[in-house]
Amino acid sequence: MQSFSNSLFADAEASYEDARYVIFGVPYDGTTSYKPGTRAAPAAIRAISYNFEPYMPEYGFELTDIPFTDLGDLYPEADPETVAAQVEDTVSMILSDGKVPVMLGGEHSITIGAVRAAMPKWYVVCDAHLDFQDEYRGSRYNHDCVSARVRDLGIDNIIIIGARSGSREEFEAAAHHRIYTADEVHDRGINAIIGEVKAAIGGDAIYLSIDADAIDSCLTPGLGTPDPFGITHWDLRSVIRALAGQAVAFDYVEVLPNDSEQTAAVAAKMIREFIGSREHPAKQER
Ligand code: MN
Ligand code: MN
Q1: pTM of the model
Q2: Tens-digit pLDDT profile for residues 216-239
Q3: Which fold has domain 21-281?
């Protein structure tokens, strides 16, 4: 039989029953403030995933040898609090079936529901923004409130890597958590930061969230809230390789595919890295 293409993530060929990883998209951008359009990201990330070979030379295996699936996109309602509940349902189902959720945004507010389902000991996020607003533009579920809502769940172990934007009040609210600014990553190097993060979390379970704007917008400009002087895609890959093994769930959010596919390409590669490095833990810290 010939090969037939579809619109799902490349090589996600396992059945749900057999899959160890379950990709799903949440094409939602209802609270975005600067540029809208992250709802188009799941499709853009899947489209460019076909640009990459199944073989992962850094791990020596084919992605097709790892059972993972792609459910397609959740149909999101309009209200961000309702969307968080839809996401919570979906992530709860995947976790209770013993699989690892891999969520494609959409805007960052969708992470609130996923963290509520996973209730990890630690929330680790790469983001230009602190997302510590208590309320923004009339909603406590705005994409600028994610870290504050995670804290409200009683998850006090919050680590933000790549931060460089937030109000004075947000920086004060974030102060007793572990914040690594992009400047600090630039000055000290990502491996020093990763060493501290790993020492802090020990063997605990984490939720790993990647807001695409953590990366310098001069490198990956397809963003709803672009911010320069960020971390690099190399830094981000190091974080994913180092921490994927401890992540009970993973998301990649805030891609706005209005560039020349740089930002979606990095997202697709990072999703492959998340799965690949979990399957090959000996090489996680390369
Ligand atoms: Mn964010
Ligand atoms: Mn952000």
Answers
A1: 0.97
A2: 999 999 999 999 999 999 999 999
A3: Arginase; Chain A (3.40.800)
